[in-house]
Structure formats: structure tokens, C-alpha cells
Amino acid sequence: MRRREFITLLACAASWPMGAYAQRSLKRVGVLASGTAGSNFSTLQVNAINQGLRNVGLIEGRDYLIDVRFAAGNYGRFPALVRELAETGVSVILASTIASVRAAQSLSPPIPIVMISTNDPVGAKLVVSLSQPGGYTTGLANLAEDLTPKLLEFQHVILPNAKTMAVLYNPANPTNPVFLENMRSLADGFTLKVLPAEFKPGAIDAVISRLSEQGADTLHLLSDAALFDAGDLIAASCLAHRIPSFSTYTEFASSGGLLAYGTSRRQLFMRSGYFVKRILEGTRPAELPIEQPTRIELAVNLRLEMRTR
């Protein structure tokens, strides 16, 4: 073989394995999204996850591919969606709701799970403890239940004459009925009557219209990803019926809510990148303590002029 031909063949042989290795090293990151594709909340969620991965040095298309499955508010779809992700060969699954985390935990063989904003993961028995989660699940809790008493204090300061408080909750979220009962206890301290209302996708205005007819002076949005996904519609309907609305989802104020007190979900979603990188580098989820927010934000919509009955 002539020398020039040998060099050419050697160069091809050297470049092929590198390309093949790069292809093999591209990891798939699965996301179980509770909302609808294209909604403001889902867009915020996916963009923040990608930003968080960039913040830790991972680039989409070079280091990972993101694969999102949307439940569109139907939590019964999570088992099928998580199987779809498993079949694509994802290395890690990001999930925010208890139902989506439980669906991911049912996989066999197991796949590492990162909770990106979950209500009371210990109380929901998703993990053993915050410091030592055990199993294949780690990530971030959101402190929504702990922040609710302060949220009611803010409501009382702003609307001291309110007598009836509507509480919108998702019965598919196992923490929401518990939160609702806690709200009843807290409301007693402010002599507030509670009007519980089940979240029904596609019937938001009808639900809020009925609450208005029942005399709701305020509305509280409980912590749930499907509710947040419909936050724009809920806020618009509350504005139309002149019901001031409150939430622990801080981005809700920019959607039209009156006041929000809690943790920025965008910041939590971004922080998930830290956990994903550690897991892709070989750290077991059980070795990564679950984090709780250290920064609490108050957001007030100063453009609103609301009244109570």
C-alpha cells in the first residue's frame, strides 16, 4: 500500500470512533410535564430546565437530548407516558407532581428520578427523608404547605373585610385535599368561610362563575402543576368575576393574580440541572440530599383594582 493511501485510511479510522463515541455519549433526559404543550407554564418549565443544564455546562444537542411528555392535566396518563420515556432509553426522568414521581418509581428496571418541585415528598412517602432520600429519587421540594399561613396573613392585611374564601384544588393530587383541610383550620383564625372547588380542565370559567355566585370574596390556588398550567385562564376568569386571587406560585402574579408568596418555580426548575449532571456523572440519587428553597418571594400585582363584597 502506498504511503499516501495508508495515511488517508488511518485518518478515517481515527475519526470514525470519535464520532461514534460522541453519539453514544449523548444522554437522553426525560421530562414528565403535567401541563399542556405550548402553555406558558410548560414553556417556562422546559426553558428553565434547559437553562439549568446550561448553567452546569451541559449543552442540548452536544451532551443531552430532552424528551418531554405532556399529561395535559390528566394525571392518569403518567404511567403510559413514563413507559414511553423508558422505551426511548432516557438516563434520568424529571417530574414535578406526586403522581408523576410515583409513576416513574414504578419502572423496572428503575431509572433515576429528579423531583423538580414537589409538595411534601416525605409526607407523600416518595422518599425516606430529605437528607437521605434512599432509592432512585432525589431533587427539590417546594415548601408550599409551610408558606400558606403567611399567604393568608397577606390576604387579611390587603382585604380585611373578606368573609368567604374559595379554594381551588386538584383532587388528583394527594396533597391537595390535605392542604384544603389545613386551609379550613387556618381560615377559622380569620373568621373566613371556605368554599372548596375542584379543578376541572375545560370548565374553569364555569367553576369560578359558580364561586362568584356563591359569594366568594377571594380565591386561593393550591400548589399543583396542572393548576399552575391553567394559571393564565384562572387569573383571567377571576378578573372577569372580580375575585382577587392568591397563590404560592410566584409567577401567578404576572398572569393576573393579585398576590403570590412562595418560591419561584423557574428557579427550582433551573436548579434541577445540578441533580441531572451529578446523576449523569455517576452519582446515585440516594447520595443526593433533597433541597428545599432558601429564597422566598413576594409578588404583588399593582395593576389590579379589586374589591370585595
Structure in words:
This protein has about 300 residues and is an alpha/beta fold. It folds into two domains: about 25-140 and about 265-285, Rossmann fold (3-Layer(aba) Sandwich), CATH 3.40.50.2300; about 145-265, 3-Layer(aba) Sandwich (Rossmann fold). Helices cover about 40% and strands about 20% of the residues. The chain has eleven helices and eleven strands. The longest helix is centred in the N-terminal third of the chain and has 23 residues, at about 5-25.
H/E order of the elements? HEHEHEHEEHEHEHEHHEHEHE
Tell me the helix content: 40-55%
Radius of gyration: 23 Å
Might you state the CATH topology name of the largest domain? Rossmann fold
- The number of helical segments is 11
- The beta-strand count equals 11
- Kindly report the spatial arrangement of strands forming the biggest sheet: 7-6-8-9-10-11
Provide the CATH superfamily of the largest domain. Answer: Response regulator
Strand content: 15-25%
The biggest beta sheet is recorded as: 6 strands, mixed
At the first level of CATH, the class of the largest domain is: Alpha Beta
Distance between the termini: 94 Å
Weakly predicted, low-confidence segments: 1-23
Task: Please tell me the total number of domains.
Answer: 2
What is the approximate shape?
elongated
**CATH architectural category of the largest domain:** 3-Layer(aba) Sandwich
Note the topology.
Blueprint: H1 3-25, E1 27-33, H2 40-55, E2 64-70, H3 78-87, E3 92-95, H4 98-105, E4 113-118, E5 137-141, H5 144-158, E6 164-169, H6 175-188, E7 193-198, H7 204-213, E8 218-221, H8 225-229, H9 231-240, E9 245-249, H10 252-255, E10 259-263, H11 265-280, E11 297-300
Parallel strand pairs: 1-2, 1-3, 3-4, 4-5, 6-7, 6-8, 8-9, 9-10
Antiparallel strand pairs: 10-11
Helix pairs in contact: 2-11, 3-4, 5-6, 7-9
